[in-house]
Amino acid sequence: MNIFNNLSSMKYLLANKLTADDLTKEVEYLISNFLVVGSLNMIYAKAGMGKSFFTLSLSLALIKSRSIKQCIYLDADNSLTALKSRGIDLLIEKYPELIYIHSSKFDISPQEILNKLSTDAKQNSNAFEDTLFIFDSIRDYIGGDMNSDRDIIKIMQQLKDLREAGATIIYLHHTTKDSDTDTPLFKGSTSFIDSVDCAFSLSSKRTENRLNYQLLVTKDRLSVEDCAFELDTTTMILQSENMQIAQLSEYEIAFVEKVQESLKFWGKDGVKQTHLLRSINKSSDDKTARKYLQKFNGEFWKIEKRPQENNASYYFPLSEPNLPNLPLPQSA
After folding, report:
1. Which residues of the chain have pLDDT under 50?
2. How many CA atoms lie within 13 A of 180 on its CB side?
3. Comparing C-alpha atoms, which of 293, 287, 289, 288 is closest to residue 313?
4. Would you identify the CATH topology of the domain 250-317?
5. Quick one: pLDDT at residue 11?
6. CB pairs under 8 A, 24+ apart, for 176-182?
7. Pairing assessment for the beta strands 198-207 and 210-220 based on DSSP bridges
8. Which pTM was predicted?
9. 26-246 — its CATH code?
10. Which of 61, 67, 94, 203 could form a disulfide with 328 if both were Cys (CB 3.0 to 4.6 A apart)?
11. Which residues belong to CATH 1.10.10 in the chain?
């Protein structure tokens, strides 16, 4: 018998040790390979990238598909005028599951609200099942120094309390002024990222009434991947977008579209590389075109070698091609 069993502290630890029965819950996604049920997530970006638009449209998609019971959106960042311009008044009337809490209605500080939520979570382990929390932005809920590990750890623990009570949490954060698009840095203490399950840096491009988002994984305790979305800002409909497409140059997009159109014509019988290049007005010795044909093999088409023809390359359309835009699940 272990001698530490005689110590009161060890008796307590052994009585409460983790067992295999405690670890029966599998990873479940709200959004495939991106948002995990019961996870704590940070999304950070430069000002003006559309973080609020993204998380709001994400919550609407999850409400429409009945993937969550409710979204509690805690907004201490945006003005009422900005919210009116985004049509939030219409959305909260149409979707009662979107519980929009704005700082103008607070009679206590944002920090006190988080304290109360944390207390409720510790008193009821199922208090926030099927609930998505969005904190916009996290700096407004700190009430301390963003560079202080002690202050940030306290806030992160309160968010963990919500997670342990069943909540899925996204908090929005900002990058430093000197961050570039390739290596974005979030503001403040490293405890912001130390405590989360997953973190994503967000960037976007705007074209008229559309926002194209890229979210790159910067921390993944869970199985998540880089991903991309397209938002129609007039309808607030969010679509998931193939990440490969999102990262293509204009030349590559045009090249892929031409090849896919040609492969549709040739169909399941496939086409030899020489004929394929000719059909898109490229010569057989065009090194750039041949490089891209190889680069996107398995992503937008497939290549087969035919030994009976001296290993000639034949190209075929994918049976289930990767499309640029795939709608998020909607309710029937």
Report:
1. 1, 3, 320-327, 329-332
2. 2
3. 293
4. Arc Repressor Mutant, subunit A (1.10.10)
5. 81
6. 179/46
7. antiparallel
8. 0.73
9. 3.40.50.300
10. 61
11. 250-317
